[in-house]
Design goal:
alpha/beta; Rossmann fold; three-stranded antiparallel sheet; 40% helix; globular; DrpA_SLOG; WH-like_DNA-bd_sf
Length: 373
């Protein structure tokens, strides 16, 4: 936790405990800090908020957080908090930016202009070579190559970027497990090389196995770290296309390499191009797309936000709105709830926060919410 020059150890501990507590996600975490000023106060308020939402509540046990911190230290990793100077600005811009990451390696790699490269696990030999060559060329031009350390295209992208050597842009590996778990097992050596020569990033606590539900969360980090996402080879329904969609939602460039319509592994890329992704065939195409008019590499396509607490966060002197009748299990935009309720944004956000902490509300991409089924 040494990077937190303005955060006490007690506050850092409380923030970890807050995030690990039941029903706390990135949005509710930020709103709680905005409303109560610090994590300790937010933890104290959770039982009352949940009770108003209709459920009893217990925060994460302190001894579990102590064990987690010890595991992070044992793994040679450290925490990176949203709002810290080292937190990657492009990732901080996305709505669901992870409040806390665990990292191993050189955090400055994530601050360089970056390209995400993703694709099929069961990929062709030609696609592996293409991904490796593209990654090498992009890293040699100063771009950090971001990927997910999966089999196939991900592994080729990391290896290509690493082959550019210490003078290149480096590589960032984002994993769906805890920082101390290597997955897939055959990439254990590659994961260790990424951690020692680049940057390894995990959102899940140490010891967490890579469950299926963790991969979409991992994908949003891959997309959020990069100015653009390049899909090399992918099936129509794949995690790579999820990453591309998340990149587009974040206002980043989406690129794809075309392939034969006869090869099912190329249909996802062809579908992306049909839907508006940029067709690229060489490193020069990617570099041109991600370079500004002044010739400088672009690390983001939007101005950096001045603060990581959302402007519509609830304020301390306004009570919750009565919105129960407006919610169903069908997702609806929060703006629509505010409009139909006639209440202030802060009051609606507080009511949603109470329901979420009580486990009765689910947040969806794009600022939508629904009652839990």
């Amino acid at each position: 936790m040494s990077e937190q020059t303005t955060m006490t150890r007690d506050e850092a501990f409380a923030r970890i405990r807050l995030l690990r507590s039941p029903n706390i996600g990135p949005v509710s975490y930020r709103q709680l800090l905005a409303r109560f000023g610090n994590a300790a106060n937010a933890l104290d308020a959770l039982p009352d908020l949940a009770a108003r939402g209709g459920k009893a509540y217990r925060a994460a046990p302190a001894d579990r957080i102590e064990d987690e911190i010890a595991a992070v230290k044992k793994a040679g990793a450290r925490y990176l908090f949203l709002g810290s100077p080292e937190y990657p600005p492009p990732l901080a811009e996305i709505e669901s930016a992870p409040p806390i990451l665990t990292v191993r390696g050189d955090v400055s790699v994530a601050g360089r202009p970056a390209v995400a490269m993703v694709g099929a696990r069961n990929c062709s030999a030609a696609a592996v070579k293409l991904a490796r060559d593209l990654a090498t060329a992009l890293a040699e031009e100063g771009f950090a190559v971001v990927s997910g350390l999966a089999r196939g295209i991900d592994g080729a992208a990391h290896r290509g970027a690493l082959s550019a050597g210490s003078g290149g842009g480096g590589t960032v590996g984002v994993i769906a497990s805890g920082i101390d778990i290597a997955y897939p097992p055959e990439h254990a050596d590659l994961q260790e090389q990424v951690a020692s020569e680049g940057l390894l990033v995990a959102e899940q606590p140490p010891g967490t196995e890579p469950l299926a539900r963790h991969f979409p969360s991992r994908n949003r980090i891959i997309a959020g770290l990069a100015a653009g996402t390049l899909v090399v080879e992918a099936a129509p329904k794949s995690g790579s296309l999820i990453t591309a969609r998340l990149a587009g939602e974040a206002g980043r460039e989406v690129m794809a390499i075309p392939g034969s319509p006869l090869d099912s592994r190329s249909r996802g890329c062809n579908q992306l191009i049909r839907d508006g992704a940029i067709l690229v065939q060489s490193p020069e195409d990617v570099i041109e797309l991600l370079t500004g008019f002044d010739g400088a590499r672009r690390s983001t396509f939007r101005e950096a936000v001045p603060t990581w607490i959302p402007e519509d966060a609830p304020v301390a002197d306004e009570g919750p709105a009565d919105i129960a009748g407006l919610l169903t299990t069908a997702p609806v935009f929060v703006d629509e709830i505010i409009r139909q309720s006639g209440e202030g944004a802060a009051a609606v956000q507080l009511a949603l926060l109470e329901l979420e902490i009580a486990g009765r509300l689910v947040r969806h991409a794009g600022g939508r919410v629904s009652l839990s089924s």
